[in-house]
Each structure stands twice: as C-alpha cells, then as structure tokens.
Design brief:
The chain is of the alpha/beta class and 197 residues long. It has helices at residues 20-27, 83-94, 104-111, 125-129, 158-169, 174-186, 190-196; strands spanning 4-9, 31-37, 43-44, 50-51, 55-56, 67-70, 99-102, 144-147, 150-153. α1 links the parallel β1 (4-9) and β2 (31-37). α2 crosses α3 (104-111).
Length: 197
C-alpha cells in the first residue's frame, strides 16, 4: 500500500495543540505526516517545542500531497511572514488538494481571498472581518466547516477540526466517525467499542 502524505505547516509561534488529534490519527491510519516550514531551520511552537521541518515551503508541491494543514500562530496577525503559506494554500486548492486551516490561519486565508466565495468559520466573524476580506456573507457560526476542499475551524475546536479532516479524506466514516467524535469531544466511553469494534 502506498502511504499518502499530509503536510503540517510549522512556523514560529504555531499553536501546537490545534492539530494534534488530526496528525496523530492520520499517522495511525496509513498517512505519512511531514512538517513543512518556511525553511528547514528549526521553528519554535507557541508551547515552546522546537521542530526542524522535514521540508522547506518552496519544495512543497500539491501533486505530492493529500492535505495541507495550517495551524494558527501569533505570526498570522503580526505581518506578512506567513503569507507564502496562504499562497501555497491557493495552489493546493487550485489543484484540488484539500487544505485545513484552524484559528489564525483562517485570517491568512481571508487575506489571500480564499474565503471570499467559500463557506468557512473561524474564532468569530469579526476576527475575519478585521482582515477586510469580502467573504463575510459566507461565514458560518459552527465548530468546523468543510466547503469542498477547504476545511476551517476556530481555535477552541481541534477535535471538530480533526473530524472534518477525517471525513474529507475518508479516514473514518459513518458510525466510526461519529464514535471517534463522541469519544474525543464528548468523553463518551461507550463510543470506544464502536470505534474499535
């Protein structure tokens, strides 16, 4: 079996807790998870972890990936340092490869114009409105939203974010997907049997 590859973007101040459910369960279900940074120089997460990216952003190609994951980071709201990641997200979406963005990464996509015509969510609507984007009418007040190849979520919804990724990629489906969410979001122990049955 050929392992599919999901790329997790890593950059200074990235919110390391937002994508843990997603990457762990992708890795457990036949995906190779690789990190992609601005360069291959080490970056430091918001939680103080140092990560050396597997790949520099300039070497990332949509045809080599099944998914691009963009976590939040303080840098999304403090200049244009992460704009190249938003431009890469555009290339992925144009190529029909899914992009999953959470927290501040949604603002980066808004600035890039990628939310202007797609249903999406974020922390709150006025957070994205502050970017000056033209997609306010497509904002959905929900934990996480999938519109075609684009998945978005707010900063407090890492489990809902993961659920949408798993549904889009077919990692878990139907009752197993529901059980996964019940177990990790609702702490429902009865879901364990369905998930592992």
């Amino acid at each position: 079996m050929t392992r599919r590859t999901a790329y997790l973007a890593v950059y200074d101040t990235y919110a390391d807790w937002e994508t843990g459910h997603t990457t762990a369960h992708l890795a457990q279900n036949g995906f190779t998870v690789r990190s992609v940074g601005p360069t291959t120089d080490p970056v430091t997460s918001m939680g103080g972890l140092t990560v050396r990216p597997d790949l520099a952003l300039h070497g990332l190609r949509p045809e080599d990936a099944e998914l691009l994951i963009l976590p939040g980071a303080a840098l999304w709201d403090s200049g244009d340092a992460l704009a190249p990641f938003a431009r890469t997200a555009r290339a992925f979406l144009d190529a029909g490869v899914p992009v999953a963005a959470i927290c501040g990464a949604t603002a980066g996509l808004a600035r890039e114009g990628l939310l202007d015509g797609r249903k999406h969510t974020s922390a709150v609507s006025f957070y994205l409105a502050a970017t000056g984007y033209a997609g306010g009418e497509h904002y959905v007040d929900a934990d996480a939203v999938t519109d075609g190849d684009l998945i978005t979520a707010g900063p407090t919804e890492p489990v809902a974010f993961a659920r949408e990724v798993f549904a889009r990629l077919g990692v878990y489906e139907g009752k197993k997907l529901d059980a996964w969410y019940q177990l990790f979001h609702d702490s429902d122990p009865s879901a364990y049997e369905v998930l592992n049955g």
